[in-house]
Amino acid sequence: MPNVTLFLTRHPAHEFVYESNEELHTHATSHRGQPTLIGQGVSANSSDDQARIKQYYMNDRQRHAFDIAQQKAQHARHPRTLTATAQRTRKSGRWRLLGMLVGPAVYAARLTSAPSGTAASLAAGIIDASIGGGLGGIAAPENALQSCHSFQGRSLELISSSERVIAPLTMFRSMERHRGNDGTSGYVALPKSTSPYDFFAQTGNSVVKKLKSEPHGRCLRVTARSAHDHGLSSLQEAILIHPAPSIGWLIGCISVRPLGDDGQYDDKLPNPSAECFTTIFNAVTSWGGNKVRLFVLA
User: Fold this and answer.
1) How far is CA 200 from the centre of its chain?
2) Which of 202, 200, 197, 254 has the alpha carbon at shortest distance from 229?
């Protein structure tokens, strides 16, 4: 039976901050008339814009004071028709990369900066360590194969079985939460690990079914055995892979969308995130026997 394997990398780090209400653009302005905050859906490189991102969150008190002033002014003009100011929330997320390979069983994986296709870059130790179970936590047979795949400017080096590749490496953009709503880091996430996480396909998940863009509640969920073997907390064990039209639908879960797509969509069908997830879910159910492995790489 063919195998389905996913590869997630969180580098290069690319943070974005999403403002959920357009009204902020017209009202919350500086004395020069320019928006004081990073706008809706605008990305910021976390290594270059730390100060700007921190300032974005520090403006919370100023924004709250502005909202109260707006409501008081509205009440003074129309005492009987007071309408509460729409709740404006901001959420921090990070774009990642997710690759999917269908075919051989993957025993060990790593990412390097070497260009793909340079077989010489495969160190001899990777296959020796994998055969002994020391690199990926899965003992590879002696006839395991080495292969090298392009991974968005990096090289994905694999030790795998000899089964043929049914579907070549398919790349997606992934999305996860990053900072808490107060601007601090620390959202729950799957830790980097040399051994893969085992997931299974689930239908009818009560949380995912709340999405209008995923009415059947389809998702990928880490197995209880894999969660135990990796020492995951109860929160980490609850992490799912599912579609998400915007970062507001994620807490610790992982969603996918086309490469280069940083849009935030309405929760309805069709949308690019739902289409990408369907591609992965169908591969898992059609080829993988409802099972899939996820490598979380550097």
Assistant:
1) 18
2) 197
Are the C-beta atoms of 42 and 51 separated by less than 8 Å?
A: no
103: left (phi over 0), alpha (psi -120 to 50) or beta: left
pLDDT tens digit sequence for 205-249: 999 999 999 999 999 999 999 999 999 999 999 999 999 998 889
pTM over 0.85? The answer is: no
Helix (H, G, I), strand (E, B) or coil at 156: strand
Number of helical (H) and strand (E) elements in the chain, helices listed first = 7, 12
β-sheet bridge partners, residue 240: 221
Phi and psi angles of residue 102, each rounded to the nearest 5 degrees, phi first: -115, 125
Q: What is the mean pLDDT of each run of 10 residues along the chain (298 residues)?
A: 94 74 35 36 47 52 53 58 48 89 95 62 43 55 90 93 92 90 75 95 96 96 96 96 92 93 87 97 96 95
pLDDT at 16: 77
| Burial label, 120 (beta-carbon count in 10 A; 0-12, 13-18, 19+) | exposed
Contact assessment for residue 240 and residue 205, using Cβ atoms and an 8 Å cutoff = yes
Using CB atoms within 10 Å of the CB of residue 288, give its burial: 0 to 12 exposed, 13 to 18 middle, 19+ buried.
buried
For residue 54, give Cα distances in angstroms to 44, 147, 185, 251: 12, 42, 11, 20
